[in-house]
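Action item from last meeting closed. Structure (141 res):
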């Protein structure tokens, strides 16, 4: 499988992009930088302001909160998608356990992409609304 199709497969699963068409996701993929990350590299650090979103294409990372391992991320997973919308402090650290290949969308690139492709804005809002609605329903259950 090519990097581009791996990236598209990863983007399809991201709730932020759930209302986007395959064409829209192609635009997002073209604006995504693919990066190799060495083991031990901190991709995010808890408490620091987030400004990028990541899709894991290869490798494995540990997710830690207050120093405790809480999860492992592997191919097809993603993290940090809300940071491209709101640069709030990260709620966890993500550290590469193996060599990784990740797709990265920085907040600045994301904003330019949304500005240049206005139809994407409505679809992203629809995806976020769906995610919020689902979260509300889970709280009510």
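Sequence:
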């Amino acid at each position: 499988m090519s990097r581009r199709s791996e990236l598209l497969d990863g983007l399809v699963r991201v709730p932020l992009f759930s209302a986007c068409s395959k064409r829209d996701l192609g635009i997002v993929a073209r604006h995504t930088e693919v990066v190799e990350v060495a083991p031990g590299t901190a991709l995010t650090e808890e408490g620091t302001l987030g400004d990028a979103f990541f899709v894991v294409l290869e490798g494995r990372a540990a997710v830690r909160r207050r120093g405790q391992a809480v999860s492992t991320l592997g191919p097809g997973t993603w993290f940090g998608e809300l940071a491209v919308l709101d640069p709030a402090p990260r709620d966890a650290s993500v550290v590469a356990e193996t060599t990784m290949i990740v797709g990265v969308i920085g907040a600045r690139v994301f904003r330019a992409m949304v500005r240049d492709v206005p139809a994407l804005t409505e679809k992203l809002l629809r995806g976020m609304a769906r995610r919020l609605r689902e979260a509300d329903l889970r709280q009510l259950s």
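Note appended to the action item: Strands lie at 33-37, 42-44, 52-58, 61-65, 68-73, 78-79, 93-96, 100-106.
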